[in-house]
Amino acid sequence: MTRKIAILGSTGSIGTQALEVIREHKERFEIYALTANNQVELLIRQAREFMPEVVVIANEEKYEYLKEALKELPIKVWAGNDSIAQVVTSEPIDIVLTAMVGYSGLLPTINAIKSGKAIALANKETLVVAGELITSLAIENRVPILPVDSEHSAIFQCLNGENSPIEKIFLTASGGPFRNHTKDQLQKVTKNEALKHPNWDMGAKVTIDSASMMNKGFEMIEAKWLFDLEPSQVEVVVHPQSIIHSMVQFEDSSVIAQLGLPDMRLPIQYALSYPDRLKSNFKRLDFFKLQTMTFEKPDTDRFRNLEFAFEAIRTKGNMPCILNAANEIVVASFLRDEIGFLQMSDIIELTMQKTTFVKEPTYEDYVRTDIEARCIARELI
Ligand code: MN3
Fold it and tell me: Which residues surround ligand 1, an ion (CB under 5 A)?
């Protein structure tokens, strides 16, 4: 039986790589829905190739153009964020791949879980913002959350067949392009330098987050919720070669790691085919070419965002949601050359201090917090 898949964010980096995987395994997967924010031309090409039941464009101004382009095909064309939140509930869908960027992933993910769909989770912000809500909903609805993030996929693979408790997780980080920069150098880096990641090919938002180490902070929070850990059980290890994608240490002292060349198609494919492993033509790791693997402690003096993430998750409540909202604003602002690299952390820190704290937030509180924190961060800029 083929699995019917909805890809939210099909024109982004994860979305296009997911379609590459699906193209190679048409006997296993079928596309039911594709959604995109703005990139209407690519969405049209994808729709023609994969013939989904539904396509949705978030930007409603592009609806007429999309509808016209697909009019001779039996594809339903919808528009707007409400339609994205709606399409995930369609009965035939088996798996929803959440590959959109940022906070916008929250509502569609909630709806998909409530409709009993398996979640292939690439949108880590969903768990950062509302990890407690998402994980409890998933348990309630008996829905699996399959990690697509390479580190969490690694941990998930290390846990295959294990029933014993985790003692600790080593979450590996490449350290990004500025690993060895001094504070003075960091002050002056440009967006083009920040957009060049040494190992991974990803979208702009996550690439900036990687350069600022916010990505690793988010991934620590993501790991906490996915694997039911205390923040103190997650240790970030800088491993610039990105060969070990993360490790699990058990209570008997044994450490299990998952290795591979950095290629996002592997964790995407594993999330979609789980529990099976599918044959791939991805490049193999050659141990004889691999000269060294090195490991360092992260420097939270130069990369303060990592410390903010630990602080946010220890504080709990809506603090991680504030952290995420502030970060989305500063990253967008940095990409428009409005603020410097280190200023991003300064604004995040102040936004965390100034936004109203809610100890036990509901979904509506998250919505309010997101608006308030964005507003405060914008004012600070
Ligand atoms: Mn990652």
Answer: 149-151
What's the token pair of residue 272? 């979609």
Same domain, 165 and 214: yes
CA of 150 from ligand 1 middle (Å) equals 5
Whole-number pLDDT of residue 198 = 81
Which tens digit of pLDDT belongs to each residue from 257-315?
Answer: 999 999 999 999 999 999 999 999 999 999 999 989 999 999 999 999 999 999 999 99
Range of the domain at 25: 3-147
Query: pLDDT tens-digit profile of 238-249?
Result: 999 999 999 999
Q: How far is the CA of 75 from the centre of ligand 1 (A)?
A: 34
Both 83 and 166 in one domain: the answer is no
Q: pLDDT below 50 — which residues of the chain?
A: none
User: Rounded to whole angstroms, how far apart are CA atoms 244 and 158?
Assistant: 12
- 53 and 17 in one domain? yes
State which of 315, 332, 352 marks the end of a domain.
315
Evaluate if pTM is beyond 0.85: yes
Measured in angstroms, how far is the CA atom of residue 67 from the centroid of ligand 1? 35
pLDDT of residue 1: 84
Provide the pairing of β-strand 3-8 with 29-36.
Answer: parallel
Six-digit token string for 135: 């994980």
Determine the distance separating the centroid of ligand 1 and the alpha carbon of 49, expressed in angstroms.
29
Same-domain pairing of 179 and 129: no
Asked whether residue 119 is domain-assigned, the answer is yes
**How close is the Cα of 149 to the center of ligand 1, in Å?**
5
Distance 191 CA to ligand 1 centre (A): 20
- H helices of 80-123, in order, are 81-87, 106-114
In the chain, beta strands by DSSP E: 3-8, 29-36, 54-57, 76-79, 95-98, 118-121, 145-147, 166-173, 234-238, 244-250, 255-259
| Last residue of one domain, picked from the residues 97, 125, 147 | 147
Q: What is the CATH number of the domain that holds 40?
A: 3.40.50.720
